[in-house]
Write a structure and sequence with these properties.
Layout lengths: L10 H9 L8 E3 L15 E5 L2 H11 L10 H9 L6 H10 L19 H12 L6 E5 L12 E4 L15 H13 L3 E6 L6 E14 L2 E12 L2
Parallel strand pairs: 1-2, 1-4, 2-3, 4-5
Antiparallel strand pairs: 5-7, 6-7
Helix pairs in contact: 2-4
Length: about 230
Amino acid sequence: MQYMGSKNRIAKHLLPIMLAERKPEQWWVEPFVGGANMIDKVEGNRMGNDSHEFLISLLVALKDGYVPPTNISKELYYAIKSNPQDYPKELVGFVGFLCSFGGKWWGGYAFNKKGDNYADRGSRVLTKQAKNFSGVFFKCGDYLDMEIPPNSLIYCDPPYANTCEYKDGFNQDVFWDWCRTQTKKGHTVFISEYSAPNDFVCVKEIQHKTILDKNSQYPRIEKLFRYKA
């Protein structure tokens, strides 16, 4: 799924490191599943959580066989944005993300000079991706309220500190304390971020470009961290 902050392009670099430590039958848990671009490449027991209700509604619907529309006009895009309560949540999720520039939630109706049909492209991509959702348990809620199976492998891709890619209000200090606590409980915890507190160690660095809007691409060094404990 095209999604702001997606790890789809670098999943091939991150997954081998984490999967090498995954035990047989161990749950793979993502507290911030986003566009499901990591969890769709993992097998076995999987749990994907996110606080965005329209995103989770879309993922659940896709898992259950939902095929998104292949044409969304500019007028319909803004009608749904203005009155989301009048439309199915999975449709709101699809239009809000897949028909917006760069996969940013209501980031502006996506179009280009070539006249590409972003709804059609998004529908085809999601229908293909959904084939990998079988067996995934999707849940909507705060990561702090998650009930995580014992000794899980937890992959966190949280809202990044000091960026404008995500909504305000995410408490970074609480998050890092939560990661420490989960590690001490026996979980294997990995975190994607640009930086981390001193008691976390970087196990992988990847340079790539982040798209913030149609005129801006920034080189970033993506890092994968673990708690030193």
